[in-house]
């Protein structure tokens, strides 16, 4: 009896694994968001400074978050599943950074497509 139960359990497990493999066989669907993050100058005639090692958080409509770290030059690449995402920025220590007043805050990501989103940040007052 135990042997029969063990064989039936093994068959169910193999069938389930085969079904899951077929479900995942279609591949991974994602798009790419990329750009450069920089700090805006307080001087209107000033230039932007690279926002190195800034944590960009892309939050989906369902609430799940994708964290991306900017490079020393402020550049980043985020591979995201298709959907709508809104962005926020933080220091490596987890302190919130302010987005520029005119900053686009949300993007739509489509499978196989690239979306450029440059992120303008405002330095926190000290």
| CATH class placement | Mainly Beta
Largest sheet: 10 strands, mixed
Helix content: 10-25%
Ends apart, CA distance between termini: 74 Å
Alpha-beta classification: alpha+beta
Portion in beta strands: 35-45%
Number of domains: 1
Overall pLDDT score: 85
Secondary-structure arrangement, i.e. CATH architecture: Sandwich
Q: Return the string of H and E elements.
A: HEEEEEEEEEE
Question: What gyration radius follows from the Cα positions, in whole Å?
Answer: 22 Å
Write down how many β-strands occur, each being a DSSP E stretch of 2 or more residues: 10
Low-confidence stretches: 17-23
Basic shape: elongated
Fourth-tier CATH superfamily name: Carboxypeptidase-like, regulatory domain
Would you give the CATH topology? Answer: Immunoglobulin-like
Number of discrete helical segments: 1
Summarize, please:
Mean pLDDT is 85; it is low at 17-23.
Fold and architecture overview:
The chain is built from one helix and ten strands. The chain has 126 residues and is of the alpha+beta class. Strands 1, 2, 3, 4, 5, 6, 7, 8, 9 and 10 form a ten-stranded mixed sheet that branches. The longest helix has 23 residues, at 2-24. The N and C termini lie far apart (74 Å). The chain has one helix at residues 2-24, and strands at residues 31-39, 49-50, 55-60, 65-69, 75-80, 83-90, 96-99, 106-109, 114-116, 119-122. The protein has a single domain, classed as Immunoglobulin-like (Sandwich).
